[in-house]
Every structure is written in C-alpha cells, then in structure tokens.
C-alpha cells in the first residue's frame, strides 16, 4: 500500500499543521484527489509574520557572500531532488517535457540569484559627490518582511522567481502558495529546511487566498507585498489594506516560465536606499597635489 | 556676557527688486490663462498678514486643460527631443534661476516666512543646482541604467509642499524633465509665488509650450490632478495622511507613484560627541526653517551621562536665537507659514504640557503682528507621549535620554516614520555601525539637514517611498523596458 504524503505548512523552520485544524483537497489534472493541504488561517499568518520578523535582523546581517552560498545550496538540493518536482508537475497536468523544462529553469534561477547576492549592492549603491566635506554614500537595505502572493498560474517557477530575489536581498518572506496547486511550494520547504536557510526566512502557507491575502496585506508588521495578478476585487482589497502602514506594493505580472523574466530589478524593487553623510576632516596645509 | 544683550540693529533685505503682479493666472500651455472657476485666493505674507497677490484657484476644467497641454507637449515635442537638447533647456533654466536668485530668495521669504538667510543661502542655491545637476543627466540615462532600457513615463502630476516651495519644485520638475516627461505642478496654496515666477523663467528660457504647466489651488485642485485619468505618474511631497489618500486613489490604475511624507526623526547625541558642535547641530536640526522640515531632528536622544550638560547648553543657546522679521538678515527663526499651522503647533505645545512634559521657551521679544512661535524644548518626555510620536512640523523639540546603544536604536526605530536620523559621535566606526541599524532613508553623522543634488533623499516606512536626488532620483521618472 502506498504511503500518502501529508502536506503541512512551513513556519519558523517547522512543519506545523494549521492551528485551525482545517484542510482542503488538492486535485490532480485528471480530477482525482491528490492530497489534503492545510487550509491556513489568520492565526497561521500571524505566526508566520512573527517568525519572519524574528528571523529578519540576523538574515539581513549575514554577509551577502553567505546568502549567496545558501541560495546556491538551494540549487544543489533542488538538482538532487528534481525527479520529485518533475513528477509533481506532471501529476498537476504538465507534459513531461514541460515539467523537466520548468524544474531546470528553477534550478538555473536559483543559481542566477545566488550569484546576485553579493553584487547588486555595487550596482545600485553609489558614492555621491556632494559639495560639502562629507563622504556621502547610498546603499541598499532590505525592506524587511515581505508578503508574497505566489503566482497562481504556475506551481513552482513563479514561487522561485518571486522568493529568491527577495531573500538574496536580505528580506524574509511569508508566502501564500498557489492555492489550487500548493504541493510544489510545500515540497520546496523541505529543500529550504535542508539548505542552511535559517528558520523563519521563508514561511509558506497554503489555503484560500481570498481569505488569507487580506490578512497578510493588512498586517502592520509586513513592510512590502509582492503581488501577482488575481481577481481584481481581491487585488483592490489587498492594496487598500496595505495602505495603513504604507506597504510598498509591487505587482509582478509576468510569465515566469520565460528565461528572460529575471533580473536585478526583481531584487532592487524590494530594497530601500539609505544615504549616509559621513564627515571628512579637513587637514589644513596638507594638500596632496603632485 | 548675559545672553539678553543680543539686541541687533535691524538689517532687512530690500524688496525693491520684487515685481509682483496683483493677480496671477494659471500657467498652461506656455501662457497665462484665466481660471474657469473665476475664483482667486489671497497669498499672505505670514510675517505681517499683508496680501501679496491674488492667485487663481484651478477647477476640473482648468486641470483638464493643463493635463492635455502636458500630453500634447509630451507627444509632439518633449518625448521626441534628444536628451542632449532637453538638457540644454534645463541648463538654461538653471542659469536664469541663478541670475534671479536674489529676487527668488526675497520672494520665497515674503511668501513663506522663512528667514532670508536660509532662502538666500540654502533654498535658492540648492534649487538652481538641482536643475544644473539633472540637466547633465538628460543625455546619459542609458548609462545611468545600463541594460535596463530606460524611457520616459509621460505626463507627471506633481504636488509640492509649502516648506521649501521652489526647492521642492526643483526636486520634482528637474528630474521629470531630464527623463523626458512633461509636468503639471500644483504648488501649496500658501506658497505659490516662486512657482509662478518659475513659470516666467520657463517662458524666458523658451521652453516649449506645455512642457511645464502650473496650476494653483488648494487640496481640491490637487485631488483633481491625482484623479485625472491621463496622468501617468504622480509625485507628492506632504503629509502622510494625504500620501495615503493618494496611494488609495491610484489603486487599479497604471499610475506610478512616489511619496515623500512626514517624519519624526531621531537626533542621537553620544557621550563622546563634541558637545558644542552637537548643540549647534541640534539647533539646526529642529529650528531650521521654523521646524517646517519633514526630516527635522524633532526627537532628541542624549546619552544620560551628558544629558544635563547638553540641556543646559541648549537652553543658554536659545536665549540668543533671534526671532522676527524673516527679511532681516540676522533672523534665525522667521514666521510660521500660516495661521492654521501656528494653531497646530500651539495645540501640540499645550498637549505636551498636559502630557506631563516640562516645557522651556526662551525669553525673547516677539513681533506683534504675523504668525510666530517661540523655539520650544520639552524634557521629561515619555516615549509614548504624542509629542514624541506625532509630527508637529514646528520649532518644538522633545528630549529623551538613554544609556546604551541598543536602547537608543530601539527607541529611535520605534516610530511609524523613517525619514532621517542624526548621530553625533567622535567614533567613525560607530557612525557606520549605528547608522546601519537605524531605519531611516538619510543618516547624518556630526551634521544635520544637509542636502545636495547628488545625494538621494527619501524615507523608509510611513515616510514614503522613492528617492529624490542623485542617480536614484531618476528612476522615479523612468520606466524600464526589459
């Protein structure tokens, strides 16, 4: 007899069931029930945001080189377990070729963003030639906790394409997985748990997005939202709720299956720019002319 | 010497050069057009409550005309022009502003109440420099954003505040034009005059009609501009409440938005700081421009070991602050911008007293006419006090103490705002270390309220988003096509 997998949430590095005790059926392409997924609740969102907040300071303080290595480790783990993800994508209705292509792109994208982790600062930061005697420089800093509505049109590539640039940039995230097809994202949490990604950096919830998105968007300890297009009324509601603490809202309307849909912008749009004025002492009579 | 002996002879700047029209129309499509509303409002000199001029109050029809004028100019002229050519217009504008700098400074002071020393030495030179700086970017956008294929956005609606009228206009218009957009700008209703002078400069510079349009009016005019369907980009500087209103109004539209909003910035004095230098810094941080500064250092945190000394020195220093005629070259603190704002500040001062904080105001002569407020210190302030949490936008400083670095970082960050912060210390490493932990878009070390066209400015959290100044300031007016 086959052992069926239980798909749980991923919060603070743990795999809890939803505190609400609810679940919903996830279907395969052929209409047969595939699994029961957790129907996450408001309380789960709060727990996830709390975990993300708790993890943020030390994640943002890690050396970018270290974040780069961790992201690369994710690519390694995904490569090692790609058969599982290909199989999941096929069950969800993708052709074998399409599933293989998507997983390969996911691995490549992890590697791509791993490489950015210690480089974007040099590109988007600057030293500014102010007129006064100051060393003036602008550097990116992560926005903080970012709420992610994962692409609802893809099971894995959207999730990877949204989450990787956020975390290599030092943000921590609370992700609402593809509601109808959450299993790849949930399976990916096993990769996260074994890739040296600290607990709480990525938190993943499955459930009904019309129930969860407003809670996440209205949460006062979330700094930004990475949204993907869903029902326009729900989008409107989420954006209205996000105003209370002036969350930065980015709507990513892309086909993430395209190889070109990646880039520095996916990192920099979730960075703040901090400018520092550091005094320069004027030393009299010490001109260093040649 | 007793501090009461600072009786300076009057040294007023001349207003002879100022040529004001009794009535200002709207600047649309390169010419002055009477408002369809047929309504005008008075622009007052807050220093003596005299009427300076009448200003047109734009309605829906006027806003429509301004936006379509900007659209035509964008479509037919400005978006087709080479960056180098756009840059030449901006350079020319910068030069004309420099040539008229004294007139602009006096006008700014008359209309807004700020000391002539500040408008002459800070506002106007920075505004000119901003145009000069962005002029040079106009033909280098591809280099600025290599590999990202930048292009202009279209028509930008820009709404500016009353605290730095011409400087904020420069922060808005210079990058917008450099990037190839056309603009409709609405200045704050109490300080429209330098924007209208700027319109004359645009005419004199031969700027193509419709590239810059100035519509004057109150919040209702601004709301019409924000809601206009043919606007592609909105840039707003002002209160957080209005910023949120604008963000809401943009939901479901393709309008791009940048917001530069309120603040309650922490100014942190560590025990190893040079105390006298820090005291001057504290004064500049909170009393510059009567405290009408979004990034004002309005929350002072002094390390406990030096707190008493710093507070005593501050009180002594306040005795020699000169409050009065903004046109007087000796004036340190001029007039509060409007009666309404004076009432807000007075409400907060009363609130501070009722919250149990100890108030200090210097004994000084105050003008009998106009809107003035004494520089005010509050000690014994609780972290939870409203005067320590809410933006007052006036010459009111709350003083709190701390013992450890961790404590002050936590207190400083415990605010919905995140615009700026000041750190005073002799240790360079501490500047970097603490600066990194503060949630603020600008960190000033051993200085405060410094601005430069090349230096990006803007907030974290509820202080808004987007940057003005520097290369980063360009991206607010570009879209990327990759």
Topology:
The complex is a heterodimer of chains A (290) and B (482).
Chain A: E1 23-27, E2 33-38, H1 42-61, H2 64-80, H3 82-91, H4 96-116, H5 120-124, E3 126-128, E4 134-142, E5 145-149, H6 157-168, E6 172-176, H7 183-193, E7 202-205, H8 209-218, E8 224-227, H9 232-241, E9 248-251, H10 264-268, E10 271-279
Chain B: E1 23-24, E2 26-28, E3 31-33, E4 40-45, E5 50-56, H1 60-78, H2 83-99, H3 101-112, H4 116-135, H5 141-144, E6 150-152, E7 155-159, H6 165-178, E8 182-186, H7 193-204, E9 212-214, H8 219-227, E10 233-237, H9 240-249, E11 256-260, E12 266-269, H10 275-287, E13 299-303, H11 304-319, H12 339-354, E14 358-360, E15 376-379, H13 386-389, E16 396-402, H14 405-413, E17 417-418, E18 420-424, H15 428-437, E19 442-445, E20 460-461, E21 464-465, E22 478-480
Parallel strand pairs in B: 1-5, 7-8, 7-10, 8-9, 10-11, 12-13, 12-18, 13-16, 15-16, 18-19
Antiparallel strand pairs in B: 2-3, 4-5, 6-22, 11-21, 14-15, 17-20
Helix pairs in contact in B: 2-4, 3-4, 4-6, 10-11
Q: How would you explain this protein's 3D organization?
A:
- The complex is a heterodimer of chains A (290) and B (482).
- Helices cover 42% and strands 19% of the residues of chain A.
- Chain A is built from ten helices and ten strands.
- In chain A, the strands form three sheets. In chain A, strands 7-6-5-8-9 form a five-stranded parallel beta sheet, with helices on both faces.
- In chain A, helix 2 packs antiparallel against helix 4, helix 3 (82-91) crosses helix 4 and helix 8 (209-218) runs parallel beside helix 9.
- The longest helix of chain A is centred in the middle third of the chain and has 21 residues, at 96-116.
- The termini of chain A are far apart.
- By secondary structure, chain B is an alpha/beta fold.
- Chain B folds into two domains: 23-261 and 463-480, Aldehyde Dehydrogenase, Chain A, domain 1, CATH 3.40.605; 266-453, Aldehyde Dehydrogenase, Chain A, domain 2 (3-Layer(aba) Sandwich).
- Chain B contains 15 helices and 22 strands.
- A seven-stranded mixed beta sheet of chain B has the order 14-15-16-13-12-18-19, sandwiched between helices.
